[in-house]
Amino acid sequence: MTENHGRATFAPAVFYKDPKAAVAWLGQAFGFETIMLITGPDDRLQHCEMAYGHGYIMIGDEWTGWAKSPRSVDGANTQTTEVHVGEEIDAHCARARAAGAVIVGEPDDQFYGDRTYRAVDPEGHVWTFSQTIRHVSREEAEQASGLKIEGWV
To answer: What is the architecture of the domain spanning 13-61+80-145?
Structure first.
């Protein structure tokens, strides 16, 4: 295994038609902090990294045929990004809503001990935010959900 020098082991790359606007919006709405921003001679965003807690995301434009914003593919998402927040989740949701996020899942307590909400950004990316509000055992989660759970840490 190689040393990662304190960086997260992996990070999602999220593509936008207007990545510069996305960077500003993600900071305002979700509290992401820009830690790297690379622009070309035409002032076009080439690469951006934004941090939240111990994780980060990469922001880019539609630079190739397979890198598309949901806005370019009828709103389709093939994945979502989950962000575990350390702050009060309801306040985080209110901040996102005030910035124009469409809240598609209001804050709600989950059987596994987290409180979560889902938001859609201006280009259609779905984001899930969670906060651990109580610690539950695997047995408690199974009983509350009616599901069989393996690999509970």
So the answer is: Roll (3.10)
